[in-house]
Structures are given as C-alpha cells and as structure tokens.
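Sequence only, no structure available. Ideas?
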Amino acid sequence: MLPSLLLQFSKILKLPQLLNIIDAWDHQTTSRFSLHSLPAHIFQPAKIIHQWIKILQNFFFCFTILPWHHSLPRAFYTEPRLFLTDWASISDKHLKLQNLVASHLLKAILFWNQFQHGQFSLFYLQDRHKRFVDFLITNNSKPWLLIYVDTHNSNLLNPDLNYFHSKLNTTYAVQLASHLPYVDRDFRTLQTPKIFPITTFLSQLI
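Reply:
I predicted one. Tokens follow.
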C-alpha cells in the first residue's frame, strides 16, 4: 500500500498548480467538469490534469459521476460531474446541497452492491437541449431511480424530470425539496414523479 501511495505522490510535480485546481473546484463542484473552465494560469496538459483527478479520487478527496447516454440520442457522452467528498467545505449552499445528496447516493450504492441487493451505478442526465436531471441510479444497467435536487424550494415539478422519466421508463422519479418537513412515507410507494422531502428520502437509502 505504502509504495503505491508514494508513487502517486511522486506524480504531483507541481503542487501549487494542483492547489489552484482544488481551489477552483469549490466553485465548479457539481458542474460538468471541463478543462476549459479551469483558471487560465494553470498551464498543464489535459493528461496531467486527469492524472491529478485520479490521484485525488484515490485519496477520497473527490469523486466523479459520468453521464448516462443509452437510449438518449442527444445526451452528453464524455464530461463527468465532479463532487467533493467533504461537501461541508463548499461555500455555495446550492452546490453544497447537491453534493450532500451525491455523497449519500454514492454511499448507498456501495452498500447495496456490497450486500448484493443488486448491481447499482450512479449517473447524471443532460442532453443537448439543456434538459437536466441531477442523478440517475441504474440497477443491472437498467434505469431505476431519477433524482432531481431542487435548490430553489419550488412547488412545481421540474419538467425535465418528467421528460427523462417518460423516456427511460424509470421505476421511480423524485424531486427532492429541502423546505418540506419529514413525512412518514417510503419513496418507493410513489407511482409517478413527485416532490418529496429530502430528509425523508435520505433517511430511507440505507
């Protein structure tokens, strides 16, 4: 284990630039990661940047979520979304909420897979018409649960959630709301896309 860690550290040849990237991620977290959006003073080839991301992932500093593109002809194919493991350090409250949900979903999926409840994976959805849903959980490579994180306390169901639910025929689709109080209802009883309290939803994952 130690030689592997030392090898990874040896690849970080320009620590100041790496620290600049980490600082930039505080504002880019939960967005699609793009090399073009990094600060102009970070002069590093794309290969080096991706190596640094992998190293930081191995140290559990961050994690990425890829886009789902199966059966969505106009979906994005390559750019991942970036999340910080320590979401409490994020200053923007909206980004913090999205990152909190992402962290809980990832932990739940790792738990479900480890205890053989299925073969779950985590993705996000976005197409070239700018329709977007924060998270898609698949089970055995089939769309299972859509999650849209409402950061503006809306009482209206997001149309993109309905759109992707109808396209992918997911078993469940929820719009998580932080302003709603806890309710005594399992999200798995929902038959159609619904607005649902975030506290209730997160408490039911594990």
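The mean pLDDT is 84.
Hope that gets you unstuck.
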